[in-house]
Design a protein that fits this description.
The chain is an alpha/beta fold and 305 residues long. It has six helices and 19 strands. The chain folds into two domains: 148 residues, Probable inorganic polyphosphate/atp-NAD kinase, domain 1 (Rossmann fold, 3-Layer(aba) Sandwich), CATH 3.40.50.10330; 138 residues, Tumour Suppressor Smad4 (Sandwich). The strands form three sheets. Strands 1, 8, 9, 11, 12, 16 and 19 form a seven-stranded mixed beta sheet that branches. Strands 4-3-2-5-6-7 form a six-stranded parallel beta sheet, with helices on both faces. The protein is elongated.
Length: 305
């Protein structure tokens, strides 16, 4: 396999087991699940289904199954059918296993920034993986640690972003942001996004943050609707560690931290969340005939009237 970012030396040279994970309840994938399993069997590759995904297959497949948490430990590649949210959840699970298992993301709606392979391109892309000619992107991830009374109480690895937001009807929130070299700023806003280069095209983009090419070693920090217009997004080297401290008084509503939009919790006064580049990265199989800029043009409708 080749890589369009950095060498993917840990990508599998030979596939013996392929994991198959579909979005929860994605009935549109049912026929494709059976076809994919048959395609793999013809090439003497074992199909390993995520437990709920196996139940979607029309044939009631008798293939080996594992939970979403466990399947990355037992396969050489994971085919994700659904959207970017499904891929994000699997990216975190793969990182937690400490294994370099590539993801091939197949989109069942409009083209995704991460699940950029359409269903009619699945077998071309998969064959390129089998042949060892696929282009693999190695995407940086973020590691976040939350502390309370100087004791770490939570750790996460995410692909896209760590987001701080207010309760739905609360007033603006206040956060202190420091980096390795000292205080960056104090911001009053509806929230704050800390995004990887990959995550720059997710919530960060919707909030007016910059698009960062995934080959750029950077982290974007973007206030959400800041109270002061001079609080602008900033891009910093991913060698920095970012610390965010909420300012919460007795009358204020809760401040929440969320990870890749998948999970989160309220913070308390005195809490601190530290975000840095993760040691793990994600291997992402690229569409066989579509560049990063082509995805941007299609998703963002650049050049259209």
């Amino acid at each position: 396999m080749t890589s369009s970012t950095q060498p993917s030396g840990s990508a599998p040279r030979h596939l013996s087991r392929v994991g198959i994970v579909a979005k929860h309840g994605l009935r549109a994938a049912s026929d494709h699940l059976d076809s994919l399993a048959a395609w793999l069997r013809e090439r003497r590759i074992e199909a390993v289904f995520e437990t709920e995904t196996a139940a979607l297959a029309r044939s009631g497949t008798a293939a080996k199954t594992h939970s979403r948490d466990e399947i990355p430990r037992h396969v050489d590649l994971i085919v994700v059918m659904g959207g970017d949210g499904t891929l994000l959840s699997m990216a975190t699970r793969i990182a937690l296993t400490g294994r370099d298992v590539p993801i091939l993301g197949v989109n069942f709606g409009s083209l995704g920034f991460l699940t950029e392979i359409r269903i009619d391109e699945l077998y071309v892309a998969l064959q390129s993986v089998v042949d060892g000619t696929a282009t693999i992107d190695r995407r940086s991830m973020l590691a976040a640690d939350a502390y309370r009374s100087r004791e770490r109480f939570d750790s996460r690895i995410v692909l896209n972003d760590v987001v701080f937001t207010k309760a739905a009807l609360s007033r603006i929130i206040e956060l202190s942001i420091t980096v390795s070299t000292g205080l960056l700023t104090k911001v009053k806003a509806d929230g704050l996004i800390i995004a990887s280069a990959t995550g720059s095209t997710a919530y960060n983009l919707a909030a007016g943050g910059p698009i960062v090419h995934p080959r750029v070693d950077a982290i974007a920090i973007t206030p959400i609707a800041p109270h002061t217009l001079t609080n602008r997004p900033i891009v910093i080297p991913d060698s920095e560690t970012i610390e965010v401290r909420p300012h919460i008084d007795a009358t204020a509503d809760e401040i929440f931290v969320t990870y890749d939009g998948q999970a989160g919790y309220p913070l308390q006064q005195g809490d601190m969340v530290s975000v840095r580049k993760a040691e793990r990265s994600l291997l992402l199989v690229k569409a066989p005939a579509r560049s990063y800029f082509e995805v941007l043009r299609e998703k963002l409708k650049w050049g259209e009237r």
